[in-house]
Amino acid sequence: MRAVRVLVSGRVQGVGFRAFVLRQATDDRLAGWVRNRPDGAVECEAHGDTGALERFVEALRSGPRHARVEHAAVQWFEAAEAPDGFRVTG
After folding, report:
1. Is 18 a catalytic residue?
2. What is the model's pLDDT at position 17?
3. What is the pTM for the complete model shown?
4. Which of 36, 37, 55, 61 is catalytic?
């Protein structure tokens, strides 16, 4: 199964970024997680269809209206299995 891990930096905490990620993932039927990091970045991992994952990554590069994405580090990989659903972990 195709998967992607994205580390987004900029003004991404305190602006609804995790809720935005959850909505995007749910809309695209992706499984995975999103969390705030202590360094001020947001990290997420998503599993699913390649086309849906590509749309997901593009959405994260923009973020919600009040966010300011400065950088999105994207790492693609193959996963043996997907987590169940998509959740906010921190």
Report:
1. yes
2. 97
3. 0.94
4. 36
Annotated catalytic residue 36:
yes
Residues of the chain with pLDDT under 70: none
pLDDT of residue 82: 73
Three-state SS sequence of the chain: CEEEEEEEEEECCCCCHHHHHHHHHHHCCCEEEEEECCCCCEEEEEECCHHHHHHHHHHHHHCCCCCEEEEEEEEEEECCCCCCCEEECC
Strand-pair category, 86-88 with 31-36: parallel
CA distance 88 to 22: 7
